Amino acid sequence: xxxxxxxxxxxxxxxxxxxxxxxxxxxxxxxxxxxxxxxxxxxxxxxxxxxxxxxxxxxxxxxxxxxxxxxxxxxxxxxxxxxxxxxxxxxxxxxxxxxxxxxxxxxxxxxxxxxxxxxxxxxxxxxxxxxxxxxxxxxxxxxxxxxxxxxxxxxxxxxxxxxxxxxxxxxxxxxxxxxxxxxxxxxxxxxxxxxxxxxxxxxxxxxxxxxxxxxxxxxxxxxxxxxxxxxxxxxxxxxxxxxxxxxxxxxxxxxxxxxxxxxxxxxxxxxxxxxxxxxxxxxxxxxxxxxxxxxxxxxxxxxxxxxxxxxxxxxxxxxxxxxxxxxxxxxxxxxxxxxxxxxxxxxxxxxxxxxxxxxxxxxxxxxxxxxxxxxxxxxxxxxxxxxxxxxxxxxxxxxxxxxxxxxxxxxxxxxxxxxxxxxxxxxxxxxxxxxxxx
Length: 438
Description:
Elements: H1 8-18, H2 55-75, E1 85-94, H3 95-98, E2 100-108, E3 115-123, E4 130-137, E5 164-165, E6 168-169, H4 183-188, E7 192-197, H5 212-216, H6 231-246, E8 252-262, H7 264-274, E9 281-285, H8 299-302, H9 315-321, H10 344-349, E10 356-361, H11 369-385, E11 407-412, H12 420-434
Parallel strand pairs: 4-7, 4-8, 8-9, 9-10, 10-11
Antiparallel strand pairs: 1-2, 2-3, 3-7, 5-6
Helix pairs in contact: 6-7
């Protein structure tokens, strides 16, 4: 094999002494041994410098390598699948004045493992099977609807969630976020919604690990370090276990499952889609650093402002604020993200040729909307290699103009939030990509 030129030359010599890596079970170099790459690394260039030129090379070599790299250097290993028993707790065909069926499903791992409460809302009328949006929430299924038949979330919740006291849901929490989850409109447009709470898998606390990682560690604290556990990877595992159920439900179209999420949940939705090809479409909304924005933040955006913070979130800031979201290796890049052998364009590349929509808000510069557009531009060549359209736009579109190519982009006025208006954009994008008539 011919040695590469340029910045990879010295690294290549060191790397091959360690062993060329294509699977998560092989050894990767320490972060300090990786060469600096100021620009977004090309997903079509392998670690040993070879360029990917065919679909077969992408599928057999580079894609597995990238999945291993992301798990080793950033998110941690996504837990292995476990068989979960699906128990139908209730099914109510009179939901939303008879326009939908409400299904309450418990996905139980057994042996003291996680139990996921999956809420499913399916249209009673219209074409079947229905396409479905799968979304993780962080205030509980009960916050999405005021229907008292939906059980209150069992796990730890943020006190910032309406109606939550001492990190637990109360009856006052019902429907606390209903205005942001337009169930009736989703049903009207022929979509189902499946949702589960993040705390069913792993509560979002940097000092406590009480979910799947605690279970896998068998109670051994030495094997369950909160700052090295990778909560985003755990939540992605939760997406995958919900997909295990969704593909068995005859009311749902197993080939039209869309993963959607806002902020940290958007980071999770993108990772889940990248690692599970059963997810046909991904919509990470305002997912920012650690998700849809580049780890290599432009100098003008990372310079401290008068409040001491940069304009856009950086790896060092996110790792200090949320040390439990990523693994310990990722923290080694806090002062040198340019040493990462990938960037978030490679995570989008792992979704190819499936559609991905990045959606943003103009005042949410913390999520780096311009950098997100650059990530899509840098993922475009993989889509082209696979014979499909990537990103149709050459520049960021005006506000409220949806770029609905295979790689999509949207930005509106406003701040960091997910609104009923955003869901209209999500459905418009899904209509186009799923070949569904509005």
